Amino acid sequence: QNSMVLSAAIFITLIGLIIYLHFVKIDQESLLVIGSLGIQVTSSYASGRESTTFIEMGQVKDVVINEAIHMQKVIYYLCILLQDPEDPQGVSEVVPLFQSSKPRLDCLIEVYKSCQEILEQRKTVPQSS
């Protein structure tokens, strides 16, 4: 009886670990910004699975560094502001980036500057219809 309970506990623990590694534990996050196309956000999980999200450049209003207070500590994170289709001045959604890796502020500033350079190039180049 005890060995059966122990076997069931081990089995449930292993299943939980596999689910955790496949759906929760992110090993690496990357951001690819192409001014003429859009922004691709990729998360690589510990199991080897990858999740990719693509945001068209026409939807991107801006990229900002946001701050939040969490457990008596200020944390910084990079966000993509998506343009509201009905109100060109408004923001329809805020997409946070690097939520698992939580890079330091100096790293976020470097990524932010690179994103802003690409966004500025996109604004100065005339759009063809």
TrEMBL record:
It comes from the Eukaryota. GO terms for biological process: GPI anchor biosynthetic process. GO terms for molecular function: transferase activity. InterPro entries: PIG-H, PIGH-H_dom. Keywords: Membrane, Transferase, Transmembrane, Transmembrane helix. The chain crosses the membrane at residues 6-24. GO terms for cellular component: glycosylphosphatidylinositol-N-acetylglucosaminyltransferase (GPI-GnT) complex. Pathway: Glycolipid biosynthesis; glycosylphosphatidylinositol-anchor biosynthesis. Residues 30-99 form the Phosphatidylinositol N-acetylglucosaminyltransferase subunit H conserved domain. Belongs to the PIGH family. This is PIGH acetylglucosaminyltransferase. It comes from Pardalotus punctatus. The lineage of its organism: Eukaryota, Metazoa, Chordata, Craniata, Vertebrata.
